[in-house]
Amino acid sequence: MLPHLLIQQRLQAAVNTVLPEADAATVLIRPCPDPRFGHYQTNALMGLAKARKLNPRQLATEVIAKLEVAELCERVEIAGAGFINFHLKNSLIVKTLETAAEGKHLFFAPTVAPRVVVIDFSSPNVAKPMHVGHIRSTILGDSLARLLRLLGHQVITDNHLGDWGTQFGMLIVGWKAILEPASLQADPLAEMERIYKRISGRCDPEKPGFDQATLDRARAELVRLQSGDVENLRIWREMIRLSQSQFDTTYGRLGVKFDHTYGESFYNPHLKGLVDELVQRGIATESRGAKAIFSEGSLPPKEDPLLVQKEGQWIPNPFIIQKTDGGYNYATTDLATLAYRTDTWKADEIVYVTDGRQQLHFRQLFASFRRWHPEARARLAHVWFGSILGEDGKPFKTRSGETVRLSELLDEAEERAFRVVSEKRPELPEIDRRAIARVVGIGAVKYADLLPNRQSDYIFSWDKMLALSGNTAPYLQYACTRIRGIFRKGGLESNGTGTAGTTIILDTPPELALARHLLNFGLVLEAAAEEYRPNFLCNYLYDLAGHFTAFFEACPVLKSQPAQRASRLALCDLTARVFRQGLDVLGIEIPDQM
Ligand code: ARG
To answer: Are the C-beta atoms of residues 308 and 314 closer than 8 Å to each other?
Structure first.
């Protein structure tokens, strides 16, 4: 068992003895933020003490008295307001590196409690190009899926395509009246967007081009589609097919795959029954011709998503599940989707990755679902993210003010990376430079998206994300190719098996620092999964590159004495393996050369 897991287990056992009624599973350890204080740390006792009105340092003392870690730790100390710091024995660090070199683990272990986790991400809308808002969902969601799978959970990914709704009335009017087949063939999404914009402009009473007759036609086409008109169904299916094929091109470039693409329309057969049931059970009520779920007043108003404050008063903010015209909406579909996922897949956890503007929707959804299915135990999480801004600090747009299309963004990333690579390696044949540029360009875009705290907005800067120095994908990719270079130079292979049986020697501070950092890999993966934050892993890998550079500058590898050479090569190999695994979790490839 890995040291951090062993220590955590012993710590939980000690907490159990001292506070038998506490939930010891919440007592976790993390890497120490400052290595001078130790290797691992826990702050969990302070929370336990606070909830019980105990003195936290006193509680820590009692827990340490029951803690059996003598063969693992050199020292265990109480610090600050009640932290416990653990100093590992050097011999244990060495042993852990040696077992990793034997290929027994890579500093992490599969979870002992695997969950069925559904991840709902990307979810673009049919007949509209994917834009930068969907890029973060796609990249973040894919990375979370990779991370949770690596840790042994059963992950089900579902692309909740927006393939139903009132926009199809307008799209069908446009398709029948103003579609240009040649444009449709050349760029289907652009043509569908064009007809949508033209017709929706005429359907909006607020806009100067408003035309009542067009609005009436759009409504009629929608009703016809909903009641199964053959021609309208054919057009609708064609729009989905064309959109899906363009989305698939983008997913292919990003290396993103889904287990399912159950669009919103998949749930149509469930909607009527769902609304009937909610009304019958008194969970939804009729209000001015619509049906909606209102607050039942069991939460403090501040925490109740079904209330909103207006002019100092708390007033209803209902979750509408059937509109006055009888139509169902986003809310109805999402309730049906949730029920399907808990029933069919027996999900233990459902994760939604969308931008922050949908926070209220998901809070209302989760609260409504709990009332509908009070027995459901699934953990529901809205993993939301901020906006991407241009260098002027305003929402990221093209020069002409249009929203940026994801496919064009990826083109530009590859083109710019190609220029950088061509400058650095003019001697390489173009085909090689293109191959490197693809991996570097796409990697840079992904990393720029994953690195910031997801809840803050970030400024999109080509120069920053493509820089070869600083916390960027190209910097990490370069660090990996550098390690590969060491092995190539020594005529050796770095495949994770060449270093088995090596005795690890940690003589110098840079070697020890690198070793300690390698040991933290598992803890960082666990923390990133727990909080749905791949940025923890980005920062870990960036620090790994720093530790590796310091080690490599201070410690000769190929030119040292045989025993030291073997140990240092093993350190290089372990570093390369952690890089590969870590970048793979981020969905980032490594070029063969750079
Ligand atoms: N299609 C939506 C959008 O583009 C995102 C859907 C997210 N998933 C969900 N189950 N609501 O904003």
So the answer is: yes
Residue 162 Cβ inside 6 Å of ligand 1? The answer reads: yes
- What pLDDT is attached to residue 498? 62
Distance CA 476, CA 443 (A): 10
pLDDT at 495: 57
pLDDT in tens, 495-544: 555 677 889 999 999 999 999 999 999 999 999 999 999 999 999 999 99
Rounded (5°) CA angle 131-135-136: 130
DSSP string, 474-503: HHHHHHHHHHHHHHHHTT---SSSTTTTPP
What are 155's two structure tokens?
């992950």
Task: With H, G, I as helix, E, B as strand and everything else as coil, classify residue 214.
Answer: helix
Residue 352 Cβ contacting ligand 1 at under 6 Å? yes
Ligand 1 atom having least distance to the Cα of 134: 4
Q: What is the band of 28 on the pLDDT scale with cuts at 50, 70, 90?
A: very high
Extract the tokens encoding 239: 């729009």
- Parallel/antiparallel/unpaired status of strands 284-287 and 154-158: unpaired
Structure token pair of residue 386: 């901020």
pTM of the model: 0.94
Q: Whose CA is nearest to atom 4 of ligand 1?
A: 124
Task: List % helix, strand, coil for the chain (3-state, nearest 5).
Answer: 55, 10, 35
Q: How far is the CA of 272 from the centre of ligand 1 (A)?
A: 21
The atom of ligand 1 lying closest to the CA of 365 is 11
